[in-house]
Design goal:
The complex is a heterodimer of chains A (579) and B (167).
Chain A (H helix, E strand, L loop, with lengths): L1 H42 L1 H18 L4 H21 L1 H38 L2 H13 L3 H9 E12 L5 E6 L8 H19 L9 E4 L2 E7 L3 E9 L5 H15 L1 H5 L12 H5 L4 E3 L8 H37 L3 E9 L2 E8 L6 H7 L7 E7 L5 H12 L5 E6 L2 E8 L1 H10 L8 E9 L2 H10 L1 E3 L9 H4 L1 H18 L2 E10 L6 H22 L5 E11 L9 E10 H7 L2
Parallel strand pairs in A: 8-9, 11-12, 14-15
Antiparallel strand pairs in A: 1-2, 1-5, 1-6, 3-4, 4-5, 7-8, 10-11, 13-16, 14-16
Chain B lengths: L1 E9 L5 H6 L9 H5 L2 E10 L2 E10 L10 H4 L4 E7 L4 H17 L4 E6 L11 H9 L4 E3 L8 H16 L1
Parallel strand pairs in B: 1-3, 1-4, 4-5, 5-6
Antiparallel strand pairs in B: 2-3
The chains are: A alpha+beta (579), B alpha/beta (167).
């Protein structure tokens, strides 16, 4: 009973299940199909992967700002990067080379520029007087030479820039030059804010009365105020006022680009890293411009101009001196009367009178050293009464022979010497017509011929006492006249191209021995010759002593005498005749 | 790294400066206290694996000669009240300062440290007063400038609260 009952229940249950299944199939068949498909998609990894791959880009895009996603992906990305780097480093190198190359080149260029600038400065200041002075300063003060150079050549250099949050005084960003001494910039930032607050509370109250700058030794701190941030810069030296504009522009730019970050600032300054280039742009510096070296061309031109100026100045001075000298020379020159002498700025004008016999003024002008084409001179003829010119004029007109001497004694033309009669007569006739000559005097002029002179000479006899070979003082007085005659003869012989031979011939009286007489003749002739020779008888005259024969005229005083025997010969034959 | 501005406040000669000086980076002389009424010091902490820099504005004591400058408080993320356990009146000063700061900056995190715990037997401040403050939600530490007790935990706790508040 129990078993049958149980079997019936079982059958009934089976029937119900089948019915339910059938009913479910009837009611939920479409949904079941969908569920099966979904199950299949979930169970099939290939299919699911394909579907996720379609959704992933969109999903990542939607979650781009999710820090969790970033945190989750970061280690995988890093791992993938390192794996890739290990597997194919060349691919990475190829990928980043175009980026790194220019960056490295720029870094090297900047380093070299900095080095070059530093070297230039050091070299420039090492070998100058100024550099030596700075070396001494560095030595005496114990500071490095580079620092002394910097101190003297730097106009200003912004060494640090602080971007400070206005309310908290916390540092948002800080940049500094390589050489700047940076202490704890965060504490400096806070203290700067404290000091600014202190000043503001103590003296300000209004925004425009905020602390904007203060000076500490060689440093100046400028604080540019912004709505939410301050920009403080530490400047070595003195920056131009226009640098305030640079700071303000920078601060404005930061306020513009970081507006949200500034307002929402909660102590994390990492988002302000992007302001670093802006702050670095504020690290400006300006050095003293090196003494402007003029262009070599300008130096040469300047030098040439200066040289030209000097030459022109020297030329003008020299011409002035030469002109003055010429004028003085013309004024002092006999026969020239300078009437006007004008210097028209390098062009000269001379007017005056000129004696025909005066020195040619043109030769004086040429000798002056001045350019003759710059001198215009006009000379009118006249007769000068200068004694030298009167004499010159007289010589020109009278044409005296060389044996005639002209002299001017006051207004009298005095003629002396020896001349032919014809000349003497002609001179006496025309001399009064020589301009400047009032009277003519020729009483000292001897007129005659060679024969006459020879006769005159041979007529003179020098007498001696008995047995004497010494010229008696009374007889010695004849010697000068004899010499004058001899010289006149000599002059005339020269004019006529002849030579004169004179022989001193002694004579003795009847007494005495032959030997004595011969000695007396010789000694007396020599005495006279010596007397004549001492005074000189002229170049055309040859004086000899005749000793060959004893002349013994009649007992007459003149027998103890010496006389001259004169001969005249053509110039060449004289010597031949008297060896 | 997170940076937070913290003000150190307290009555005259409660030991604010000596309490923290041994544990902070200081760059500026104490002379600033008497000149501009504040020195800024720095304390770097690591809280829950994260570094945080506390910029400590050590404000010159509050007394009849020199009032604290409210402008120094501006921008603070939190503050520390320092009380001298041996001088009861310094607690009253701290209470007054707390009201001033809260009035100015609103309810920002703060902590109170009762200094001179090394001479606790001569304290004038009793536990009852402090318990009352604790019940009001105040975070109170006992510390000693002499032994260094309580200082690190003071900063760590406050920094932790600041970071949590920030997140």
């Amino acid at each position: 009973m129990g078993e049958r009952s149980s079997k019936n229940v079982s059958d009934l249950t089976t029937d119900v299940s089948e019915d339910l299944s059938e009913l479910r199939n009837l009611l939920l068949a479409p949904e079941q199909t969908q569920l099966d498909r979904l199950q299949e998609r979930l169970d099939d990894p290939v299919l699911r992967t394909r579907e996720v791959s379609r959704l992933l880009p969109g999903a990542l895009t939607l979650q781009k700002d999710d820090p969790v996603l970033t945190a989750v992906l970061t280690p995988h990305v890093e791992q993938a990067f390192f794996t890739s780097l290990r597997r194919s480093p060349q691919a990475i190198v190829d990928a980043i080379a175009p980026i790194m190359g220019p960056a490295i080149r720029q870094a090297i260029r900047q380093a070299l520029q900095s080095l070059t600038q530093s070297l230039n400065q050091t070299v420039e200041h090492s070998f100058s007087l100024k550099g030596l002075r700075w070396r001494i300063e560095a030595w005496t003060t114990g500071r490095p030479f580079a620092e002394v150079v910097l101190f003297h050549t730097l106009r200003y250099r912004v060494e640090q820039a602080f971007l400070i949050h206005r309310d908290t005084g916390l540092l948002l960003q800080h940049v500094a030059t390589e050489t700047a001494i940076v202490r704890d910039q965060e504490m400096v930032s806070g203290m700067l804010t404290a000091i600014r607050n202190f000043v503001h509370d103590s003296f300000g109250g209004q925004r425009e009365r905020d602390l904007s700058s203060f000076q500490v030794g060689e440093f100046t701190v400028w604080i540019q105020q912004g709505t939410n941030a301050l920009l403080a810069v530490v400047i070595r030296g003195t920056a131009p006022e226009t640098f305030h504009d640079v700071l303000q522009d920078t601060l404005d730019h930061i306020h513009l680009t970081q507006a949200e970050a500034l307002v929402a600032f909660n102590g994390d300054a990492s988002s302000f890293a992007s302001t670093q280039p802006n702050l670095e742009a504020c690290l400006q510096s300006q050095y003293e411009a090196p003494a402007q070296k003029p262009s070599p061309v300008l130096v040469v031109i300047g030098f040439l101009l200066l040289l030209g100026l000097l030459l022109w100045g020297w030329g003008s001075y020299r011409d002035g001196q030469r002109w003055d000298s010429l004028v003085d020379r013309l004024k002092s020159e006999p026969g020239l009367v300078l009437i006007t002498a004008h210097d028209h700025g390098g062009q000269y004008e001379l007017t005056g009178l000129r004696d025909p016999l005066a020195t040619d003024p043109t030769s004086l002008i040429a000798a002056s050293g001045l350019q003759t084409d710059r001198i215009r001179s006009t000379w009118s003829p006249y007769y000068a009464l200068d004694p030298r010119l009167i004499l010159s004029r007289a010589r020109t007109i009278l044409q005296p022979p060389d044996t005639v001497n002209l002299a001017l004694e006051g207004e009298v033309l005095v003629v002396s010497g020896t001349a032919q009669k014809d000349w003497a007569q002609e001179a006496r006739r025309i001399a009064p017509f020589v301009p400047g000559v009032i009277r003519y005097e020729d009483t000292k002029l001897r007129t005659g011929s060679i024969a006459q002179l020879i006769a005159d000479i041979e007529r003179i006899t020098i007498l001696f006492a008995s047995n004497s070979t010494v010229i008696d003082p009374g007889e010695a007085k004849k010697i000068p006249a004899l010499i004058i005659a001899i010289r006149e003869l000599d002059d005339m012989a020269i004019q006529s191209h002849q030579q004169v031979t004179m022989e001193c011939r002694g004579s003795v009286d009847a007494g005495g021995s032959e030997l004595t007489n011969r000695m007396l003749i010789k000694a007396r002739a020599q005495a006279v010759c010596s007397a004549l020779g001492e005074s000189g008888v002229g170049s055309a005259t040859m004086l000899t002593t005749e000793t060959a024969s004893i002349r013994r005229p009649e007992n007459h005083a003149t027998t103890r005498s010496v006389s001259l025997s004169v001969g005249i010969h053509p110039a060449d034959s004289a010597k031949a005749g008297h060896p | 790294m997170m940076h937070k501005k913290i003000c150190m406040l307290g009555g005259f000669a409660v030991g604010k400066t000596s309490l923290v000086r041994r544990f902070v980076t200081n760059l500026f002389s104490e002379q600033y206290h008497t000149t501009i009424g504040v020195t800024v010091e720095k304390k770097v902490l690591s809280v829950a694996g994260e570094d945080v820099t506390l910029m400590l504005w050590d404000l010159y004591g509050d007394d009849e000669f020199q009032r604290i400058r409210e402008s120094y408080l501006r921008g603070s993320s939190g503050y520390i009240l320092v009380v001298d356990g041996t001088r009861k009146e310094t607690l009253a000063t701290a209470l007054g300062l707390q009201q001033t700061v809260e009035g100015l900056l609103g309810p920002i995190p703060f902590a109170l440290i009762v200094n001179k715990s090394d001479v606790r037997d001569v304290w004038e401040i009793d536990d009852a007063a402090l318990s009352e403050l604790r019940q009001q939600g105040w975070t109170i530490f006992f510390g000693s400038a002499k032994t260094g007790e309580g200082v690190e935990s003071l900063f760590s706790t406050l920094a932790d609260r600041l970071l949590k508040q920030a997140t």
